[in-house]
Amino acid sequence: MAAGAGVKVGEHVYGVLSHGFTLPDGFTGQTFDEFSTRHPHLAQLSVWHIVDVDTLVYTWIIMALLLVLGYVASRGLSRVPSGGQTVAEMVVEFAQGIVRSFIGPEVVPYLWFIGALFVFILAANWLGVLPWESLAALHLPVYEPPTADINTTAGFALLSFFTYFIFGFAQKGLGYFKHYVTPKWFMLPFLIVEDLSRPLSLALRLFANITSGHVIIAVLLLLLPFFVPAPLMGFEIFVGAIQAFIFAALSATYIGAAVSSEH
To answer: By C-alpha distance, which of 70, 125, 142, 107 is closest to 236?
Structure first.
């Protein structure tokens, strides 16, 4: 998030309710002011005024984790899968199903993009369900999903936005843009507004659902610390998977419309 918004929402709510406006150790977010104090040479770079350092670090950690898991799961492949290969094949087949359902039978050109979106968002959401607050006593930073940062969701939404234009143009050339004046030219402004609303809805939907879930868990951890959070965290696993699917499915739908011969 922007400068000063480095304190994550769920942690902030929990801290305010339990300790006033002084966050307990382990729940301190990385605001720009704190970052600039610790790293004055980097603070001179204008980019740090708009970057949430926690989000940036956790994003790279998740990417590295997925690369390692992918490498491990793809080693020693056999015709009769077991262990990690089974899980990897299930994920790939699920992503293939999204492509087939929303784009068409030609899977290969689109699987890399839709699969990467789904796997990253799923991993980021599910890691957020783990009890990271228990690390507070060790004075270690508490994980917050990158998908709970509007910068991340907006970045994914813009990526999806430009990607379906690229696929559409690659498939149809300049003829792709004919649909803006079909069947009548006066449809142009309405179709432009429709296109511009897509990344906005993608970004806000994912951000709001993930953030609201963490806020609710943070509040209930204070009110009923032993009973309510466990089933609610189970529900968060379900919500995290659904949100990853919705984002990937909507992106596939936009690509499918862009490359369709009827579009």
So the answer is: 125
Closest CA to 240 of 119, 149, 154, 142: 119
Structural element, H or E, at residue 180? none
Smallest CA-to-CA distance from 52 within 196, 240, 207, 212 is with 207
Between 22 and 162, where is the model more confident? 162
Q: For the residues 231-253, what does the mean pLDDT come to?
A: 89
Alpha-helical (H) ranges within the chain are: 9-19, 32-38, 40-43, 53-73, 84-102, 108-127, 150-172, 188-223, 229-259
Which range has highest mean pLDDT (16-20, 55-59, 71-75, 157-161)?
157-161
36-45, 208-217, 240-249: least confidently modelled range: 36-45
Which residue, chain included where needed, has tokens 């919705």? 246
- For 29-38, the CB contacts below 8 A with 24+ separation are 29/54, 30/6, 30/54, 30/141, 31/3, 31/4, 31/5, 31/6, 31/7, 32/3, 32/4, 32/6, 33/3, 33/4, 34/6, 35/6
**Alpha-helix residue ranges (DSSP H) falling in 20-81:** 32-38, 40-43, 53-73
Locate the domains of the chain by residue range. 9-259
| Token reading at 177 | 């843009």
- 123-130 mean pLDDT: 86
SS3 (DSSP) at 21? strand
Of the two residues 78 and 219, the one the predictor is more confident about is: 78
